[in-house]
Predict the structure.
Amino acid sequence: MKNGTLNLAAMKSGQRGKIAEMDLNHPSCQRMMAMGFLIGVPVEFLRVAPMGDPIAIRLGSQVLSLRRAEAAAITIVCQEVV
Amino acid sequence: MNADSGQKQPLQVSLAGNPNVGKTSLFNRLTGLRHHVANYPGVTVERRIGQHNTTEGNIWDVTDLPGTYSLAAASPDERVVVESLMGHVPEVKKPDVIVTVADATNIARSFFLLTQLMELGCPVVLAINFADTARQLGFNIDIDGIARELGIPVVLISAAQGEGIKELCQAIERAAKFPPPVRVMEWPSYLSGAVDGFMRQVEAGSGKRLEKAEALRVLLDANSALRELCGVPSGQLEKWIAEAREKIFQAGFNPLSVEAVLRYDYIGKVTAGRVSHSGTQQETWSDKIDAVLTHRVGGLAIFLALMWMVFQAVYSWAGLMMDLIDAGTGWVGKNVGVLLEGSPATQSLVVDGIIAGVGGVIIFIPQILILFIFISVLESTGYMARAVFLMDKLFSWSGLNGKSFIPMLSSYACSIPGVMAARTIEDPRARLVTILIVPLMSCSARLPVYALMIGAFIEPAYGPFVAGAVLFGVQIFGLLVAGPVAWTLHNFILRIPSQPFLLEMPPYRPPVIGEVLRRAAGAGWEFLERAGTVILALSILVWALLYFPRSEDAKMTAENAFVAKAVQEQGLAKNEIMLALEKPESKLAVARNHAVEGALVRQSYLGRLGHWMEPVFAPAGFDWRITIAVLASFPAREIVISSLGILFQIGNDVDEDSATLREAMAGARWDSGYRAGQLLFTVPTALSMMVFFALCMQCAATLAIMAQETSWRWAAIGFIYMTVLAWVGAVATYHFAGWLL
């Protein structure tokens, strides 16, 4: 799925992309926007915690950890396929 | 503030900022150790307040606000912080200056909150922290350019090292005297039109004049806790909000995302050309450490090793110091006791009430200091966020989060530092759940009770293997109960909205020793000042309940009864017995003293309460003596051993290994009721008692610290649920074990 979109929670380690869409009805969405989750911001999926959740990502220049439940609100346009 | 009171009234300075920007380091820098914690009226949010003495001799009241990314308020807890900044909370003074602390390595995100704060109409000073780290990372920040653009003073600081603090203080002083000409961002006309229209509607409807910042929150937050401010029926308000949002929508923007889009757009313009970043070497360095420390196998192994070290430190290293404090208290008590021999009531009050009470407070200090040194290092290096990342899944199902791990772990040593460690949890709901369940962890004070019961009743009957298994079982029992309790509290009881788990994993930084020690000392000081006085008061209260009423009659009756019994049992004449009792060191005299002591406790207020409450505890297999011992050990569960010693008339100088205590307990029989004549301590009784001690909050210090960290209401709720749980657990165990064995 070259240049396709996928959910942030479904990304694999090392994959990069940009935020394409955010689910504004998600209860955490506004908080995430305050932290810098905005359409067009580059995202790199870093790793998954040992027990499968949460995940670690690089958002712009900051490294964040979030649960899959929150990540589900974010859709990514992928730049490269791993 | 009016000018004439300016000299006398302390300047009100509030520190605001994102979590992890070093706000607390700055607060500690400004105030030293002298600060206290206050709750906002009506909610569980707390703020730290301390005094800063300026070089000119002025005094400031500095308030450390809870860390936040935005002024959006979804809960009453968040709302009260916003409203206090606007001076709308009756008991909280409006700040004269708001110091916004920003992270030099993450300017854009820090500026989101800054632009919101600048709209509140209060002078704002921007302190950009981590100047040293930013320099090392190759950040270049043009603070003069930013100051010009925003119209506010900007100071680069390194709070942990003390860099830039003097300049910051001067900037605060100036901003208070001559409010800076703040240049707030301009909202596009479709948005300000919608906001103005909405404000007019509300004013016409209820007469309430909203501030613009308040109206923005009501309109732009999905569900703002500030809605109640409008004083308009909710159906009507809903309609006006929908109308105003429609205007924004018409202009081509989603009302729920427009604020973030516009602010970040504006922030981009402010920082363009003023914040630059050359080289990414250090960042990859941080990434490399992450690859090891958050690795599925290696990361977990390192985490477990570190936590083992923390536990050892709190359990063993602190244990040495605690033994010293204990011995010191005993020594002081003994020597002061000799001085006061003339008046037994005063002697008992001073020795058993005050000195023992003070000892019971300072005994916790080593654990608190050691744990907070570790926590402080783990947090300031950035490792804590990684530990949370590794552990979160283990806790998230029950409403806790990865940060609950350290409070729970340290509670295995003692729940006092455990409850205090929960202050590192930002999410107020997860924090409260954690505080409510950590006292279930099997702390070291429960061990003597288990050792006594297992040693006296389980091991003789079933051998060492079963004894070991039972000990292991009761040790993890509390932990197993804690999960479902947390889940229940989280899903059915607590009404506080939980915050999403969005945790920043900051770049690794070396710890600053001074900062680490300051933080540990601050935690110790807070404990002494707030919880310490309560613990002392409670221990004096329990002393009084056990001591009074002390009548000479009761003493005489007990002595006569002892003599009569001795005459009967030993077959000696009464005067021979009396002669033997003259020698204070004789076996008979010691036995007499123990008998009198037991009788006095029985007729004390607490003893009477125990008798009266026997029916309550009888279903758990406790007679009045066990009931008194249980009640007497509510201030501190380890007291149960010496209480049993007194009640079974072998004196209070016993421990869990005492053969005399074990014999006395094994021989004790029910003296009334349908079980009269039966053995009191059976295996079901021993198990029931262990379950009771595992689940009950028999610790005044825990109660006091819970009240300090939350409120008396939550401390009471914790106490009640644990006591009920302990009773139900003990009764069920007694009957189930009785049926099984």
Notes: The two ends of chain B are 75 Å apart (CA to CA). Residues 661 and 735 of chain B are 25 Å apart (CA to CA).
